[in-house]
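The authors assume throughout that readers already know how a fold can be written as discrete tokens. In essence, backbone conformation is discretised, so a fold becomes a row of integers matching the chain in length. A single example would do more here than another paragraph of explanation. For illustration, here is how one protein appears when written out as sequence plus structure tokens:

…
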Amino acid sequence: MKVMKSEDLYLNRAKFVMKYLGVWIIFIGQVWGDLEAVSQSSYLLFTQACLCFKVTVLQVNISALKDLLKRMNDEIFLPQSNEHERILKKQAKRIKRLLMAFMISSQTTCGLWALKPLFDDAGSRKFPFDMWMPVKPEYSPQYELGYAFQLLTICMSAYMYFGVDSVTLSMVIFACAQLDIIKDKILTIKPIQCESKTERIAIIAENNRKLIECIKQHQAIVSFTELVENTYHTFLFFQLVGSVGLICMSALRILVEDWQSMQFFSILTYLSVMISQLFVCCWCGHELTATSENLHTVLYHCTWYEQDMKFKRMLCFAMMRMSHPIVLRAGHYISLSRQTFVSILRMSYSYFAVLNQTM
């Protein structure tokens, strides 16, 4: 059987994007005093600041990242059957589809931002973003070069968002796939119905070996997810907390914009991108918890009643340990789950309602 590298299966796109692209930061001081420009620059500034923080965390913890990539290719995580490969590919496909949808929506937002000066400010030469530029829009080809520079850099930052998020979230879903593999191994434990004593001894030894292997694999998964959380919990926390302000600010901008303008649709798509990014983070954490919380129940479904006393003793200790679900937390405090996603949306709406009343 061909050896499958989980690192390439889950992180090939992220590695390609992050290998060739960089990030940029907008300049807000130039537009201070203009409420519309400042509000636009503020959420763009936070977006880029969040991206820079994520990249910084990634680079500071580069040794931990190398350790994680090495663990993904450990022998204990290698697939042992076609079913195991199917599980790994299925989970990789799920997270890749979600992240691809996020990337497409983010690039759509960048395109709408770039089209805004051409439609909302037709006849006047303006750059897509109010930021300091070394060139003036009144002259050619400075206007064309500046326009292309802004469009290129914002698209690059969107790709970088995709790359950094793919590293963390793909590793979480990889852990989910490994938990599903453990369940498959447990359910393949053979019943002891052989008349031959030699065959009974061989099956008992194989079942004990398989259970021990599942216990070691579960311990490796727990250690792997703890390292993921310890490495990236800071930017996950920054993302969750900042999403509240970004959602509120974007919603306020939508209220004051003409619904027929390109600016309205660009802010609307930006809002959907931020919500989708938040959802993917919370969904991955929820999948990890949901996949691990019924692991001890699957252990009970195997033919444990036909096994020897050693197997039953190990099974009891394994069930007690695996009864605790694996929880991924942002900032070691906020658990990533669907409930957290709904709570953030409710909190954002509450703040938005208060701000709307005070305007």
